[in-house]
Description:
By secondary structure, this protein is α/β, with parallel strands linked by helices.
Amino acid sequence: MADIWIISDGKPGHINQSLGLVEALLEFKPNLTFKTLPLKGVSSELFATDRPKLIISAGRATHFWNWALTVRFGAKNVVLMRPSLPYSFFNLALVPEHDAPPASDRVVTTKGAINRMKPSNKQPESRLVLLGGPSKHVIWDDDRIIEQIDQLTEPSIGLLNVATSRRTSSDLLQRLKSKTSIRLIEPDSVDSDWLPSTLATTEQVIVSSDSVSMVYEALTAGCTVSLIRLESTTNSRTQQGIDSLVEQGLVGATADQKPANPVSNFREATRCAEIILERAWL
């Protein structure tokens, strides 16, 4: 019998958000139990004999079943990110501020999406560059990326670690591979644990500004974060969120600029878990 049910659409980003919240709840109440329900076959849970106390999900495809199972069992429910159903269908919605959620006691505004990152002992002067790729939110510019990476390379402190993503173009990859001043890390060369474990121990992270989730994950991992800044497309809410972080001094505006007000305890999952426990749902 599980206290918490997670409904999963199978997308890694969505399940990681749900697990981030559950793991934060377990930090306060280690005796809580949970299980993950894949969308395929979730309808059979309507006939389950055990009853959850809390149902959590992320992703549009999960929203109906989150609500339906909540009605069936009289549980409380939480949706991560802006829901496709009315907010009244959920006891709590944890919505990133760039989505401009309504003011309501059912809504908690978060800085970015919740994630599972955790800080650890930092390696002094360690640096990591995280690159995304073409996105509807920015005007991608390979030359600008290369220029800012070149500004970061200093032979006296060794190779600069640069990790690319599956969105990184082949042209940019080839240009990066030609540089002897960097150590290139491609997604297929590492396992799924590489990024969380690396961020946990890395002191300074420089992220291309299209990679919004990476910015928040690096902050959560306790890293000092700066941006490889790209021009934003018109009215991009996610980039407005990045601009807000810069204005607050939480991240550096450019690759070689440190944040004015770096944070050492950026744990949105923990804050949201505390709110849930304060409401005595578990």
